[in-house]
Amino acid sequence: MTVIEKIAYLKGLMEGMSFEAVTPEQKIIASVVDILDDMAKSLTDAEENIDHLNDYIEEVDEDLGDVEEYLYGDDFDSVKDYEDDDEDDVYDFKAHDKDGDDEDGDDDEDGDDEIYEFECPECGEKIYLSEELLNNEEIICPSCLKKLRYEEDED
Questions:
Q1: Of 77, 102, 121, which closes a domain?
Q2: What span, in angstroms and rounded, lies between the C-alpha atoms of 58 and 4?
């Protein structure tokens, strides 16, 4: 039973009981039922609009998928979901050497890359990157998917 049907049932009960708003309490009850009726109608209209918008969004999404498939072809699966060049979404961070150097500052003898630890300024997640990955132009936090820009630590 929908909300409108429930309100209609309530109004039918009131009519069947010959409910007359004579006392202040009865007037309040009648007013509340009228308000509920208006709210039910508004809710139904909103639900219909949401259904219409969801259908429209699905159509647009399908059309966009067709356009992406046409533009990217077989490479469609490798396209990044987070391509956004808006500078407001780029966060600066500083990396700190994490056990990559010996006490004298030389690289470890095993020849592995230095590992740097940093904390994402957006979500606070600790992330570990090699020096090679730090030199990439674009670094994405794996936790919050925000773009990060590396600033070299002066220490």
A1: 77
A2: 28
